[in-house]
Amino acid sequence: MKIVLTTLSIGENYTRDYTCRLIDDILKLSDIDVYVTTDSPSIINEIFNGNSRIKINTVDRNDLKIRIKINGGYSDDFNFNLRYMCFEPVKDLEDTLVIFTDCDNSFDWWDTDQVEQFVSKMLIDGYDFYGPRINYRWSTYRNEYLNNDKANVGIFWHKFYNYDLNPESTEWDEAPLPAEYLLIFYNKDKKLNKFYEQWKWFHDYLVKKDDSQGTWAEGFEIGVSSFVSGFKGYDLNWNHPLWSKILVASGYKNGHRGDIFHQTER
User: Fold this and answer.
1) Domains of the chain by range and CATH?
2) What is the dihedral of CA 80, 83, 85, 91, to 10 degrees?
3) How far apart are CA 125 and CA 15, in angstroms?
4) Could you tell me where the beta strands, DSSP code E, fall in 17-136?
5) Nearest Cα to 204, choosing from 40, 79, 73?
6) Mind listing the pLDDT tens digit for each residue in 12-22?
């Protein structure tokens, strides 16, 4: 089974201080390839000397809308929808397990046999998309929103404004709302290509607007894109016995290795 990991790394500081640590962990602990979409390829090449397991997808920050206006244009925020770009270099890898994670997470452990056994069982059961909070559906949140008289409840209220959605529409009710830090796809039948195109649509729609309420909680865009592309999701919950050992959310910032990072120099 071919297995790869993909991530987005924007900015020299994040690339040097976080992404390169994630890459180093992956190279030392596993045999999988890592795809990095970045505007700072020279930093990675300098540190890892062109390692063939690192696949760099270079982007020009001048072509990107890295920050978008929010709250009537009085401030701006990082455009998390840029992470759709991580799937551009891997979307055509058929029969491949594609793992997405944030570049500031920690990769702590790996066992190829256990990962392949997990995926094989999931595929037999019909599941080809895995991640925390997948059982939480858009229909559940949409009903919460309507029952609270369209109040700013939960973390997804701004999606209605951002994409000019009708809160009465049931079109995407079965879409999951996964946690963003860990997405795992088994790509087959060009599903990941469809996923990429749908998330890109959300990105393009929002950057063309004069204002937004931010792109945070992009589990909405991810979940709808997975639903539209035909993935069937399995909820890993937050403490899965396998995946919680492999990846820890914000491991180098706030996770269990955060203190180590802040106490050491690269």
Assistant:
1) 2-136+179-263 (3.90.550)
2) -140
3) 38
4) 33-38, 54-58, 67-70, 75-78, 96-101, 106-107, 129-131
5) 79
6) 999 999 999 99
